[in-house]
Design brief:
234 residues; mainly alpha; Tetracycline Repressor, domain 2; 11 helices
């Protein structure tokens, strides 16, 4: 079983996230390391630039210069800037979806499961703020209730209503409430105006408040939020 590093101000992955995903994409492949390094350099350069600017504000020349590769090398790997952006978005979004699937146990009651999913995304944002910033720039609709990463939240909300854990609010409104809280968490984690400890301390009562708005009593909401934090953030 993999050991998860504790969240501290200095926690850094030994390899970049994109480097890890590229390694997983081609496990054991050693035939063309130069090509793999170039592709990774382009993805990482694009992520840095997209984290700061919109896709329209970044040119092919910008990406090639940032990656320190010839412009022609980019076209050896991607047909266009948009194709590169799509691949970057797909890689990061798929990874987050895998993290959610691994962390959300169907045997856990809907309130804690809902908060746990939100905290998994928060942890990812704390560990990889640049990836999250780029993700949001590339797809603002990511925070809409029907976006792929929010479908799971909606499913949990509906299940919670069917089991009586949630009540008094329509499913669409409940999902948007959860998504709004996630946006607050993501923005705070990207801005890094708070320490990790203070950020977590703020998010536990925030998500407890979301659960209360969904009809969970105050005591149960607090217990669920703290349990989810212990499972995903500590």
């Amino acid at each position: 079983m993999a050991v998860r590093p504790r969240l501290t101000e200095s926690s850094k992955p030994p390899q970049s996230l994109l480097g890890q995903l590229e390694t997983a994409r081609n496990p054991g492949e050693k035939s063309d390391r130069r090509s793999t390094r170039t592709r990774l350099a382009l993805l990482e350069a694009a992520q840095r630039l997209f984290a700061e600017r919109s896709i329209e504000g970044v040119s092919i020349d910008d990406i090639a210069k940032e990656a320190e590769v010839a412009k022609g090398s980019l076209y050896n790997h991607f047909d266009s800037k948009e194709a590169l952006a799509d691949e970057l978005f797909r890689m990061v979004r798929s990874h987050v979806a895998e993290l959610l699937d691994a962390a959300i146990d169907d045997g856990i009651a809907p309130p804690e499961r809902l908060v746990r999913g939100s905290f998994v995304i928060l942890r990812f944002a704390i560990d990889h703020p640049e990836s999250v910033s780029a993700l949001l720039k590339l797809s603002p609709e990511l925070l809409e209730d029907k976006a792929p990463l929010n479908v799971k939240a909606r499913e949990i909300v509906i299940e919670g209503m069917e089991t009586g854990h949630f009540k008094g609010i329509p499913a669409d409104s409940a999902t948007l409430l959860v998504v709004g809280a996630m946006l607050v968490m993501l923005q705070d984690s990207i801005d890094r105006k708070k320490s990790v400890k203070r950020l977590i301390a703020k998010m536990i009562p925030l998500m407890a408040g979301v659960l209360k708005a969904l009809g969970v009593n105050s005591e149960s909401a607090g217990i669920a939020a703290k349990a989810a934090a212990r499972a995903t953030l500590e």
